[in-house]
Specification:
mainly alpha, single chain, two-stranded antiparallel ribbon
Length: 231
Protein backbone atom coordinates (compact mmCIF):
# COMPACT_ATOMS: atom_id res chain seq x y z
CA UNK A 1 0.00 0.00 0.00
CA UNK A 2 2.99 2.32 0.44
CA UNK A 3 3.08 4.39 -2.76
CA UNK A 4 6.60 5.11 -4.12
CA UNK A 5 7.81 8.37 -5.62
CA UNK A 6 6.74 8.99 -9.21
CA UNK A 7 3.81 6.59 -9.29
CA UNK A 8 1.37 9.53 -9.34
CA UNK A 9 1.99 12.83 -11.12
CA UNK A 10 2.96 16.06 -9.38
CA UNK A 11 -0.47 17.76 -9.25
CA UNK A 12 -2.13 14.67 -7.78
CA UNK A 13 0.62 14.26 -5.19
CA UNK A 14 0.40 17.95 -4.25
CA UNK A 15 -3.39 17.78 -3.92
CA UNK A 16 -3.09 14.74 -1.65
CA UNK A 17 -0.44 16.53 0.41
CA UNK A 18 -2.86 19.41 0.94
CA UNK A 19 -5.67 17.05 1.96
CA UNK A 20 -3.33 15.15 4.26
CA UNK A 21 -2.10 18.35 5.91
CA UNK A 22 -5.67 19.54 6.45
CA UNK A 23 -6.68 16.17 7.87
CA UNK A 24 -3.77 16.12 10.29
CA UNK A 25 -4.47 19.72 11.35
CA UNK A 26 -8.12 18.94 12.08
CA UNK A 27 -7.09 15.78 13.92
CA UNK A 28 -4.72 17.77 16.11
CA UNK A 29 -7.64 19.85 17.32
CA UNK A 30 -9.94 16.85 17.70
CA UNK A 31 -7.38 14.84 19.66
CA UNK A 32 -7.59 17.34 22.51
CA UNK A 33 -11.01 15.91 23.33
CA UNK A 34 -9.72 12.34 23.32
CA UNK A 35 -6.41 12.51 25.17
CA UNK A 36 -6.00 12.73 28.93
CA UNK A 37 -3.36 11.67 31.43
CA UNK A 38 -4.30 8.00 30.99
CA UNK A 39 -4.78 7.80 27.23
CA UNK A 40 -1.80 9.94 26.16
CA UNK A 41 0.80 7.27 27.03
CA UNK A 42 -1.34 4.67 25.25
CA UNK A 43 -1.23 6.78 22.08
CA UNK A 44 2.54 6.50 22.05
CA UNK A 45 2.36 2.76 22.59
CA UNK A 46 -0.17 2.37 19.79
CA UNK A 47 2.04 4.30 17.37
CA UNK A 48 5.05 2.18 18.34
CA UNK A 49 3.03 -1.02 17.96
CA UNK A 50 1.75 -0.06 14.51
CA UNK A 51 5.26 0.92 13.43
CA UNK A 52 6.68 -2.42 14.58
CA UNK A 53 3.92 -4.57 13.12
CA UNK A 54 4.03 -2.76 9.78
CA UNK A 55 7.60 -4.00 9.46
CA UNK A 56 6.32 -7.59 9.52
CA UNK A 57 4.72 -8.92 6.34
CA UNK A 58 2.40 -11.91 6.18
CA UNK A 59 1.78 -13.94 2.99
CA UNK A 60 -1.59 -13.41 1.34
CA UNK A 61 -1.17 -14.97 -2.09
CA UNK A 62 1.49 -16.55 -4.28
CA UNK A 63 4.44 -14.15 -4.37
CA UNK A 64 2.67 -11.35 -2.49
CA UNK A 65 2.45 -10.27 1.13
CA UNK A 66 0.74 -7.66 3.25
CA UNK A 67 1.07 -5.88 6.58
CA UNK A 68 -1.07 -4.12 9.12
CA UNK A 69 -2.24 -0.61 8.22
CA UNK A 70 -3.53 0.08 11.72
CA UNK A 71 -6.13 2.78 11.14
CA UNK A 72 -9.06 0.95 12.70
CA UNK A 73 -6.94 -0.42 15.54
CA UNK A 74 -5.71 3.05 16.45
CA UNK A 75 -9.19 4.58 16.20
CA UNK A 76 -10.77 1.97 18.47
CA UNK A 77 -8.02 2.09 21.09
CA UNK A 78 -7.35 5.82 21.31
CA UNK A 79 -10.04 7.54 19.24
CA UNK A 80 -10.34 8.47 15.54
CA UNK A 81 -8.70 11.90 15.78
CA UNK A 82 -5.70 10.60 17.69
CA UNK A 83 -5.66 7.52 15.48
CA UNK A 84 -5.09 9.68 12.40
CA UNK A 85 -2.16 11.35 14.14
CA UNK A 86 -0.58 8.05 15.23
CA UNK A 87 -0.72 6.42 11.80
CA UNK A 88 0.44 9.63 10.12
CA UNK A 89 3.48 9.87 12.41
CA UNK A 90 4.35 6.26 11.61
CA UNK A 91 4.14 6.97 7.87
CA UNK A 92 6.28 10.10 8.17
CA UNK A 93 9.00 8.25 10.09
CA UNK A 94 8.93 5.37 7.60
CA UNK A 95 9.23 7.70 4.60
CA UNK A 96 11.98 9.92 6.01
CA UNK A 97 14.16 7.35 7.77
CA UNK A 98 13.37 3.95 6.25
CA UNK A 99 12.54 4.81 2.61
CA UNK A 100 9.23 2.97 3.03
CA UNK A 101 6.98 4.98 0.72
CA UNK A 102 8.18 7.97 -1.26
CA UNK A 103 8.70 11.39 0.31
CA UNK A 104 6.89 13.12 -2.56
CA UNK A 105 4.11 10.54 -2.16
CA UNK A 106 3.83 11.04 1.60
CA UNK A 107 0.58 12.94 1.24
CA UNK A 108 -0.86 10.13 -0.86
CA UNK A 109 0.12 7.55 1.74
CA UNK A 110 -1.31 9.60 4.60
CA UNK A 111 -4.60 9.99 2.73
CA UNK A 112 -4.85 6.27 1.89
CA UNK A 113 -3.35 4.60 4.94
CA UNK A 114 -4.33 7.06 7.65
CA UNK A 115 -7.34 9.20 6.74
CA UNK A 116 -9.26 6.61 4.71
CA UNK A 117 -8.62 3.66 7.01
CA UNK A 118 -9.54 5.61 10.13
CA UNK A 119 -12.66 7.19 8.64
CA UNK A 120 -13.97 3.93 7.14
CA UNK A 121 -12.84 1.73 10.02
CA UNK A 122 -14.28 3.98 12.72
CA UNK A 123 -17.48 4.52 10.74
CA UNK A 124 -18.08 0.78 10.42
CA UNK A 125 -17.11 0.25 14.06
CA UNK A 126 -19.51 2.96 15.27
CA UNK A 127 -22.34 1.50 13.19
CA UNK A 128 -21.80 -2.02 14.51
CA UNK A 129 -21.49 -0.71 18.06
CA UNK A 130 -24.80 1.12 17.72
CA UNK A 131 -26.64 -1.92 16.36
CA UNK A 132 -25.31 -4.68 18.60
CA UNK A 133 -25.85 -4.99 22.37
CA UNK A 134 -23.61 -2.94 24.65
CA UNK A 135 -21.01 -5.61 25.38
CA UNK A 136 -17.29 -6.13 24.96
CA UNK A 137 -18.11 -8.61 22.22
CA UNK A 138 -19.72 -5.88 20.12
CA UNK A 139 -16.56 -3.78 20.46
CA UNK A 140 -14.44 -6.65 19.15
CA UNK A 141 -16.86 -7.45 16.31
CA UNK A 142 -17.01 -3.80 15.28
CA UNK A 143 -13.23 -3.50 15.26
CA UNK A 144 -12.87 -6.68 13.18
CA UNK A 145 -15.40 -5.58 10.57
CA UNK A 146 -14.03 -2.04 10.49
CA UNK A 147 -10.51 -3.32 9.91
CA UNK A 148 -11.59 -5.79 7.23
CA UNK A 149 -13.43 -3.12 5.22
CA UNK A 150 -11.02 -0.23 5.73
CA UNK A 151 -8.16 -1.90 3.82
CA UNK A 152 -9.97 -2.54 0.51
CA UNK A 153 -11.55 0.92 0.87
CA UNK A 154 -8.05 2.42 0.87
CA UNK A 155 -7.25 0.35 -2.22
CA UNK A 156 -10.32 1.75 -4.00
CA UNK A 157 -9.33 5.32 -3.11
CA UNK A 158 -5.82 4.73 -4.39
CA UNK A 159 -7.23 3.40 -7.66
CA UNK A 160 -9.27 6.59 -8.00
CA UNK A 161 -6.14 8.66 -7.49
CA UNK A 162 -4.32 6.51 -10.03
CA UNK A 163 -7.13 7.09 -12.53
CA UNK A 164 -6.61 10.84 -12.11
CA UNK A 165 -2.84 11.05 -12.03
CA UNK A 166 -1.23 7.65 -12.55
CA UNK A 167 2.05 7.64 -14.47
CA UNK A 168 2.46 3.90 -15.12
CA UNK A 169 1.36 2.30 -18.37
CA UNK A 170 -1.27 0.12 -16.69
CA UNK A 171 -5.01 0.41 -17.20
CA UNK A 172 -7.14 1.63 -14.32
CA UNK A 173 -9.27 -1.52 -14.52
CA UNK A 174 -6.23 -3.71 -14.07
CA UNK A 175 -5.04 -1.65 -11.10
CA UNK A 176 -8.51 -1.81 -9.52
CA UNK A 177 -8.79 -5.57 -9.89
CA UNK A 178 -5.31 -6.23 -8.55
CA UNK A 179 -5.43 -3.73 -5.72
CA UNK A 180 -8.89 -4.59 -4.43
CA UNK A 181 -8.44 -8.34 -4.83
CA UNK A 182 -5.13 -8.32 -2.99
CA UNK A 183 -6.25 -5.94 -0.26
CA UNK A 184 -9.39 -7.90 0.49
CA UNK A 185 -7.03 -10.67 1.57
CA UNK A 186 -4.80 -8.23 3.45
CA UNK A 187 -7.93 -6.92 5.15
CA UNK A 188 -8.57 -10.36 6.59
CA UNK A 189 -5.14 -10.34 8.18
CA UNK A 190 -5.75 -6.79 9.41
CA UNK A 191 -9.05 -7.89 10.94
CA UNK A 192 -7.41 -10.81 12.75
CA UNK A 193 -4.61 -8.67 14.23
CA UNK A 194 -7.02 -5.88 15.17
CA UNK A 195 -9.51 -8.22 16.80
CA UNK A 196 -6.86 -10.03 18.83
CA UNK A 197 -5.26 -6.78 19.98
CA UNK A 198 -8.52 -5.09 20.95
CA UNK A 199 -9.80 -8.15 22.79
CA UNK A 200 -6.49 -8.43 24.69
CA UNK A 201 -6.63 -4.82 25.84
CA UNK A 202 -10.30 -5.19 26.76
CA UNK A 203 -9.46 -8.21 28.88
CA UNK A 204 -6.84 -6.33 30.91
CA UNK A 205 -7.61 -2.60 30.79
CA UNK A 206 -11.01 -1.97 29.20
CA UNK A 207 -11.05 1.52 30.71
CA UNK A 208 -8.30 2.52 28.28
CA UNK A 209 -10.19 1.49 25.12
CA UNK A 210 -11.75 4.58 23.58
CA UNK A 211 -14.26 2.54 21.60
CA UNK A 212 -15.53 0.88 24.79
CA UNK A 213 -16.30 4.06 26.71
CA UNK A 214 -19.99 3.62 25.94
CA UNK A 215 -20.07 0.52 28.12
CA UNK A 216 -21.59 1.24 31.51
CA UNK A 217 -21.43 -0.28 34.95
CA UNK A 218 -18.95 -2.95 35.90
CA UNK A 219 -17.66 -3.44 32.37
CA UNK A 220 -15.28 -0.53 32.87
CA UNK A 221 -15.23 -0.54 36.69
CA UNK A 222 -11.57 -1.11 37.55
CA UNK A 223 -10.92 -0.01 41.14
CA UNK A 224 -8.12 -0.42 43.59
CA UNK A 225 -8.87 -2.10 46.95
CA UNK A 226 -8.77 1.33 48.63
CA UNK A 227 -11.34 2.89 46.30
CA UNK A 228 -13.52 -0.21 46.52
CA UNK A 229 -13.60 0.02 50.34
CA UNK A 230 -14.32 3.72 50.14
CA UNK A 231 -17.27 3.03 47.88
Amino acid sequence: MHVPDGYLDGPTSLACAAVAAAGVAVSLRGSRRELDERSAPLAGLVAAFIFAVQMLNFPVAAGTSGHLLGGTLAAVLIGPWTGVLCVSVVLIVQALFFADGGVSALGVNVVNMSLVTVVVGWGVFALVRAVLPRTRGSVVVGSVLGAALSVPAAAVVFTGLYAVGGTADISTGTVLAQMVGLHVLIGLGEALITGLTVSSVLATRPDLVHGARHLAGRTLDIRTPETALAA
